[in-house]
Amino acid sequence: MSQMPQLSACPSCEEPLESGDRYCGACGYDLSAVPAPPDDNPAVTMNGTAPRPPSAVASVDWPVAPEADSSDTPAPVVLPADIDGRESGGSDRPGVRFDRPAQPSAPPSAEPDEYPLAAPLPPEAAPADPRAAGFSTPGGGMKVCVACRAGQVDRDGYCENCGHAQPRERDHMEQELSAVAAVSDRGLRHHRNEDAFTVSSTALPDGSSAVVAIVCDGVSSATRPDEASLAASRAANESLLGALPRGTHPQQAMHEAILAASEAVNSLADRTAPAHEHQPHVNAPACTLVGAIVTPSLLIVGWVGDSRAYWVPVDRTSPPARLTEDDSWAAQMVAAGLMNEAEAYADERAHAITGWLGADAYELEPHTASFKPDRPGVVVVCTDGLWNYAEAAEEMAEVIPPDAADRPLHSAQVLVGHALDGGGHDNVTVAVLPFPAPPQGAGSA
């Protein structure tokens, strides 16, 4: 059994004690709970840390507290300054070790509770983000995550550190030329933008201008629809820019452009997959396409799928019109007289397309049409991400601003905003082309 330390006064109330007392007679303090004074280290720790282990330095000879005399006068208090000790710095001088820089000693008349404490430690630096552990700042040319600002972005667009998906370049795109503008947005529900567009202008052989807009919508149920729409829009645009300056009639040029777009999408199909040995084009990349060419006197549209073109006159007292017919289940039901338009487009099968660009398309049937408007207006070329919220030509005319012919980019932005305000359930892409085209071509872009 351990021996109780011999105390001259109660540690709680300082009442004098008799030898052998186990409890203070004044306050009832349990004297057996008082730890014995250390005999190997004179340090007094004030910061909550454990004392250092015994060193080779000679231990301090603690004086024995004298017993109280018969006059009940408390025993004299032994001050730290009365004891030879060693500072943590190693110098031999009286003092108290706080395991911190030395502080001025207390005046001789100070009571133990009045000794000055050491200055607080400086605030610790904020801990490093554990997610960034092991990651150095990416070198030149590497993209840095917009979320954690530490990890590198892999080729799939995700941070290698925190896994956050990075904004893609195609999430929102805008382009404006002198006589055409287009805007594309990912929408509010899709994780990527599978639409694509191109806008350009060129000169016809007679020196007049031709303005071109191509809009493509990737088929989400197919593989790599974003690649399909991008390839189709670029191929169609390049075909038109090559054919129109040579004097090819714009309607024929549009037909050829759709065929070129189809070939570009077909080339994306994976014909090496062993699982589809007998059906190499199953679920191949696919997209729809709609395009418009505006000249000083002609308006040409071409399409495959359910992307649309609308005509909206500058004079809003004149009726607007839809210039395309969908390659869709709903359109077939209406054409066959089996349903009216409202019934057909209310059906869950309404947007099932019956024509598209892709290696697994049943049969490619490019549609083209030529118009000679007798008044100025604008052509709206868009995906179903827009016309779902303004299906009828009259609804489209109500949404597009009255100054659309003068401000095509602003009008395209307004139309995309209308779709987003309506819910943004799909990618949204729209191009606005004023008619007639300006008299002088600005060159291709």
Short description:
This protein has 445 residues and is of the alpha+beta class.
* Mean pLDDT value: 79
CATH superfamily of the domain at 169-271 and 279-435: PPM-type phosphatase domain
Strand content: 15-25%
Structural class: alpha+beta
Radius of gyration: 43 Å
Q: Give the CATH architecture of the domain at 169-271 and 279-435.
A: 4-Layer Sandwich
Helical percent range?
Answer: 10-25%
Head-to-tail CA distance between termini: 97 Å
CATH class of the domain at 169-271 and 279-435: Alpha Beta
Low-confidence stretches: 41-51, 54-63, 80-119, 128-137, 441-445
CATH topology of the domain at 169-271 and 279-435: Phosphatase 2c, domain 1
Tell me the total number of β-strands: 12
Task: Describe the protein's architecture and organization.
By secondary structure, the protein is of the alpha+beta class. Among the domains are: 131-167, no CATH class; 169-271 and 279-435, PPM-type phosphatase domain (Phosphatase 2c, domain 1). The chain has seven helices and twelve strands. The protein has helices spanning 225-243, 250-266, 329-335, 341-346, 384-387, 393-399, 408-421; strands spanning 172-177, 180-185, 195-203, 209-218, 286-294, 299-304, 308-313, 321-322, 357-358, 367-371, 377-382, 428-435. Strands 1-2-12-11-7-8 form a six-stranded antiparallel β-sheet. Strands 3, 4, 5, 6, 9 and 10 form a six-stranded antiparallel β-sheet that branches. Strand 7 (308-313) and strand 8 (321-322) form a beta hairpin. Helix 1 runs antiparallel to helix 2. The longest helix is centred in the middle third of the chain and has 19 residues, at 225-243. It starts with 171 loop residues before the first strand and ends in a 10-residue tail after the last strand.
